[in-house]
Amino acid sequence: MTRTVVDLASLTWTLEGWRPWEWELASAVETAVSRSCDIGPVPARFPGSVRGALWEHGLILDPSIGLQSRASEFIEHRHWVLRATLPADLPQGGLELEFDGLDGPVVVFIDGERRAETANSFVPLRVDLGDASSRSGASIALVFLTPPPYLGQIGRTSELRDWRPRFNYGWDWTPRVVQIGPARAGRLTVRQGAPAPRDLIVRAEFNAETTAETTSGTGTVSGSGTATAGAELRIALLSSDGDARAETSATADAEGSFQFTLTADGVTGWWGTGRCYVVRVTEDEEGQAVERRIGFRDVRWQSNPGAPDDAEPWLLHIDGAPVFIRGVNWIPLRGDYADVGLEEYRQRLEQYRDLGVNLLRVWGGSARERDEFYEMCDDLGLLVWQELPQSSAGLDNHPPTDAAYAAELAEIAEHYARTLHHHPSVIVWSGGNELAGAPGEPTPGTPLTFDHPALQAAKAAIRAIDPDRKVVPTSPTGPRYVADESEFGQGLHHDVHGPWVVSPDPAEWERYWHADDALLRSEVGVAGASSVDLLEKYGIDGANAEERAQLWRHTSNWWFDRDDIPETDLPTWVEKSQREQAAALTVAASSAMDRFPACGGFIVWMGHDSFPCAISLAVVDYEGRLKPAARALGQVYGRTLAAEKRG
């Protein structure tokens, strides 16, 4: 089989803004009135956001300055049409359009014909267009309709049923900057002959032999997939330079299913090296290859010493050695995350690695990251805790329980597992962030278990593809959502979140952490100001306390006391805020580390700002600069290597 793939980024795209439904009236034969778009057309990128295209071409103000993001909220009240023309020289063969993620809802038109639609940002949309040659030069239009009105931080999780990212509707670290547009890559594929192997699932096992210099050993790869019935499959394990380390073959049965196992001696372990290999499966001699990138490591979770019998094990071992989790909670780099370049991803990930971070928790208020994020984590040796796209909402934290919602979440979980299962960086699946209680109960409530039907369905979908990795219903887990000092010593604190506010008396803060008994601290935050020059650059420094209060409420309302805002001496206030954040996180992270292995890890909330914030819980500011808290955390994380050896 041969295959032609056209990256949709290579097409020439234009963007038009319409008052709702006027784009449809413009093409209606019954109207004699010529209609034109309200905004544009302007050149656009794929992927890319509507806001990004409008800003690039001077049609809106810079949304990161002052209160100017409010001026672009009108974007949500238009329909946006993204247009391109398919290549004029497409060969014969089956033609398919595939979109990895569309922040819609969106309707797809080909030559004016309605062909598909979706309102789910978390799963791909595939559109079969029939014979490719008949579509050469055809027009394509993606019509993005008005998004759901509100999915932000405060609400009722039990009433939220829209499958799109929530964070950019407004959180305590970003104003409302709702992204609309193609959020991820897309492609146009022409297939000729028999299809390539499909649904390829691979599993890598590692029998490690660790020395003082390196970890190597025997690697075993097992896999399965579908192909043409009776087809001969050639399977190879390749090193990074393309050399074959092991080869085998398989034959697809009458239903097209195939399975294989191959073993290679002397492979290099992934942990500590970032060494990856490629599994390549080819159907017949001239077939199209399908590849999965893997790494060899042995990940196991053991019970923390002294943990209650019913507690989830939170003591991580990799290749037989205990590992203290030194983490940051990862949020998207921008509200309009489709506009972020890969170089910014690499810079931020390398920055965390250099601080001693070994795990990123990809938080459930957004989506899974782009494919390149996980490839970079593989290369850098960073672990990933991946959450499904569900989160608390303050007024209740309990997702819907009906069968339709459970089926929708299971579909997303299956897609996440299918696309991420082979990455050595991914070590934990979670059903979502801070899911707890029940509708009508006081918040936050007790963390949910897999008794919840949607979480149960999601777990089953993940397990069917990725049976070996750790899956938890939510974070936190166990009897308590947060750790109460009055309950220390009672075995009630397993994986807990908080605190996020430092007590006024530093001695109280130290006493709390020295008495801590949590098995894992997966979310701990302390607020700290951004630098004075950043406040000035983005117009949020303010001339006096009253003006600062107005500006800071835009992003930081949770994290400052109006009475503490300085009238004049802003630099002194910023220095004090940053110093206190650094000191408080040093106490918290050090205490968790000192209790290792009774405490399995510490994950700070949060890593970086996605919007210019006057003050936030981030340790890295909007421009990627380290706050003093990040440097302090790096010093603590650097000391955990000795703690791991003691473990």
UniProtKB/TrEMBL annotation:
Q: Does the keyword Nuclease apply?
A: no
Name the domain of life this protein comes from. Answer: Bacteria
Keywords on this record? Glycosidase, Hydrolase
Sequence ranges assigned to domain Glycoside hydrolase family 2 catalytic in this UniProt record: 318-475
Pfam families associated with the record: Glyco_hydro_2_C, Glyco_hydro_2_N2
Q: Which InterPro entries match?
A: Beta-mannosidase-like_N2, Beta-mannosidase_GH2, Galactose-bd-like_sf, GH, Glyco_hydro_2_cat
Among its keywords, does the record have Hydrolase? yes
Q: Where in this chain does the record put each Beta-mannosidase-like galactose-binding domain?
A: 41-184
Q: Which Gene3D superfamilies does the entry link to?
A: Galactose-binding domain-like, Glycosidases
Protein name per its UniProtKB record: Glycoside hydrolase family 2 catalytic domain-containing protein
Query: What's the source species' lineage?
Result: Bacteria, Bacillati, Actinomycetota, Actinomycetes, Micrococcales
